[in-house]
């Protein structure tokens, strides 16, 4: 019996210049111009305030509590990639910690987004590598079960395809489909300008709610 390949080595990534431009926007701005959709559920949070990440998704599916394929992805991902792990939301064992973070940072990766637990929180929080996860647990994982690399994954209710743009900050993580990046950047800049105008109006004393009709 033939099976589909579990590991896809080659993915299409967005232009690095688009990633650089996207990194300048808040996740909230990109979520708004994307139709208030594409954000990971609120369970996925940065492990320290101020962490930010932007880069193409290098997707991984693992069995709950097992990080074998996470390690495989770590060996395959390219500089600037964000490893995005579908860990099924399982919090019984951490899927990564300081050692994997150190390796990823040395390899030039942009960050981890894990729908599962992580550990070594204090050390990770003191560093500069962005880690977003669904929680923490001191238990270590197993390394014996297969999974998939660079297939579509689902994290906290949102589908992520390989090469989609991942942008995360203190508000959480938003996923921008690769084919929509350029248009969303145009809309994001327009929204930033519109919000700046509204803030200026408020500071000048215009406290009304634009677009709200009082009955």
UniProtKB/TrEMBL annotation:
**Keyword Transport among record annotations:** no
Q: What does the record list as GO biological process?
A: methylation
Known SUPFAM superfamilies for this protein?
A: RraA-like
User: Required cofactors, per record?
Assistant: a divalent metal cation; Mg(2+)
Mind listing the UniProt keywords for this protein, alphabetically? Answer: Magnesium, Metal-binding, Methyltransferase, Transferase
PANTHER family assigned: 4-HYDROXY-4-METHYL-2-OXOGLUTARATE ALDOLASE 3-RELATED
Keyword Nucleotide-binding (UniProt): no
> Where, by residue number, does substrate bind?
97-100, 119
InterPro entries cross-referenced by the UniProt entry: RraA/RraA-like (IPR005493), RraA/RraA-like_sf (IPR036704)
Q: What is this protein called?
A: Putative 4-hydroxy-4-methyl-2-oxoglutarate aldolase
Q: Name the lineage.
A: Bacteria, Pseudomonadati, Pseudomonadota, Betaproteobacteria, Burkholderiales
Which positions are annotated as binding Mg(2+)? 120
The UniProt entry, under CDD domains, shows: RraA_family (cd16841)
List the Gene Ontology MF annotations in alphabetical order: metal ion binding; methyltransferase activity
């Amino acid at each position: 019996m033939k099976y589909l390949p579990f590991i896809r080595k080659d993915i299409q990534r967005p232009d690095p210049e688009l990633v650089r431009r996207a990194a300048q926007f808040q996740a909230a701005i990109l979520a708004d111009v994307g139709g208030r959709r594409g954000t990971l559920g609120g369970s996925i949070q940065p492990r320290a305030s101020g962490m930010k990440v932007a880069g193409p998704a290098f997707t991984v599916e693992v069995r709950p509590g097992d990080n074998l394929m996470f390690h495989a992805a770590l060996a395959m991902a390219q500089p600037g990639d964000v490893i995005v792990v579908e860990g099924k939301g399982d919090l019984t064992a951490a899927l990564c910690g300081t050692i994997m973070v150190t390796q990823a940072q040395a390899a030039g990766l942009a960050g981890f987004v894990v729908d599962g637990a992580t550990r070594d929180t204090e050390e990770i929080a003191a560093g500069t590598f962005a880690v977003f996860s669904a929680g923490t647990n001191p238990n270590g994982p197993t390394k014996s079960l297969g999974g998939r690399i660079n297939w579509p994954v689902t994290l906290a209710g949102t589908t992520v395809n390989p090469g989609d743009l991942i942008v995360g900050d203190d508000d959480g993580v938003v996923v921008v489909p690769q084919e929509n990046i350029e248009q969303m950047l145009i809309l994001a800049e327009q929204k930033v300008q519109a919000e700046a105008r509204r803030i200026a109006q408020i500071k000048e004393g215009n406290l009304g709610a634009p677009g709200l009709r009082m009955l």
